[in-house]
Specification:
About 75% of the residues lie in helices and about 0% in strands. By secondary structure, it is an all-alpha fold. The protein has two domains: about 60 residues, Helix Hairpins (Orthogonal Bundle); about 80 residues, HscB, C-terminal domain (Monooxygenase), CATH 1.20.1280. Helix 3 crosses helix 4, helix 4 packs antiparallel against helix 7 and helix 5 packs parallel to helix 7.
């Protein structure tokens, strides 16, 4: 499935997410089961299948990692953590050090440090997304995008962990 075609969006990484959300909402409304209540069984099944495709396409395009994976797959590049180049050792060491700092901040209940580490990682995630956007644009190199996709995965995991710690420390 091409999630961009399903939602009627351009095939690009730097999508207007609000426009993508609007397309999803409009298609979801048009394919809502209530609109097909009096239709035949096969037409209801088709509408339900199309609605499922629309929902899956939305899940893909709104997630930066999955959106990059979809673009790379459409370009004929195999993706997946086992099919991508090994991460740069410096990146691995840096992320490991940041994770240790995050664990220390959690242990000492230092919410400020957790937020500081999150902000640093958000900035790095934004830079990786900028590179992905450039490399996945017309004239870019899908192969050059692969290492940044791997980095983005690391940054996302770190931010998810930091968010969970922040929730734990704030009780929300």
């Amino acid at each position: 499935m091409n999630p961009f075609d399903v939602l009627g969006l351009p095939r690009r990484y730097d999508l207007d997410i609000k426009a993508a959300e609007k397309a999803h909402r409009e298609l979801s409304r048009a394919l809502h089961p209530d609109r097909y209540a009096s239709a035949g069984a096969s037409e209801r099944r088709d509408a339900l299948a199309r609605a499922a495709d629309v929902n899956e396409a939305w899940r893909i395009v709104r997630d930066p990692v999955r959106r990059a994976e979809a673009l790379l797959a459409l370009a004929g590049v195999e993706v997946g953590e086992n099919k991508e180049p090994k991460p740069d050792p410096e990146l691995l060491m840096d992320v490991l050090e940041k994770r240790e700092a995050l664990a220390d901040a959690k242990a000492s209940r230092d919410l400020g440090k957790v937020r500081q580490l999150s902000e640093e990682m958000e900035a790095r995630k934004a830079k990786a997304e900028d590179v992905l956007s450039h490399e996945l644009a017309e004239g870019g190199s899908a192969e050059a995008a692969l290492p940044k996709l791997g980095e983005l995965r690391f940054f996302r995991r770190f931010l998810e962990e930091a968010s969970a710690i922040e929730e734990e420390l704030t009780g929300s």
